[in-house]
Amino acid sequence: MTEQLISEIQLLSNQRSFRLVIDKTQKIFDDNIHHSGIYFFRGYAHHELGELKAATPFYLKSIDLSSDVEENDGYSWSKIQSAHNLTNIYFDLNLYDKCIDICNYNKVFFKNHSRMASNMNFYLNSLYQIAHCCYLKNTRPLTSDIHNMLGKLQLFERQQECNTGIECIEEAISLVENRMSGNYVLYVDFLFIAGMLYLIMNKHTVAKSYFKKAADLGDTQAQRQLGKL
Description:
Blueprint: H1 2-14, H2 18-30, H3 36-48, H4 52-64, H5 77-92, H6 96-111, H7 120-137, H8 149-179, H9 184-200, H10 204-216, H11 220-228
């Protein structure tokens, strides 16, 4: 019964009939039927309609119920898809700490999971999102003077976060270079974020090397940054 309902909802979702998905899933919930896959499609419907805050609780519920579709190796498609989509929502809503938390979970899961090779995009996205969040969190000026205790603490936290971001983005760059040669869109984005993180750390020479690689591939943002260094 549940699998049939999921198939019907998935068909509506594939047809981009997202309001019908919302109506149908609500009736299912009202009948006290709860399943991870159904919550995923409800969240996805709101997500595709641009209703990011409305999508969030349904994705979270899908993760909570992920054992509904968990396979013998611990893989749950609804949990992975929901977690992946949540990272994009949290990023778009500027909830960077929440985005990093879920990306860290995804990163560890795929790093240690036998299906990582077939889900490389999820892994790369987690690395990139962590690095991008670490960059955006630290573009604002420190609120305290670095010569007092609070300022020193803020500076230390900034350095720690930037180092985390650098570690993730350098791994992503290495994976793209070794396994996804020719995917210049991803590669250029990764190079630019690496450059910006090193720039925040005042490592201008290293930053410049990343900007140059991106600029040589035609990235205008990197070209502008090179002009400033």
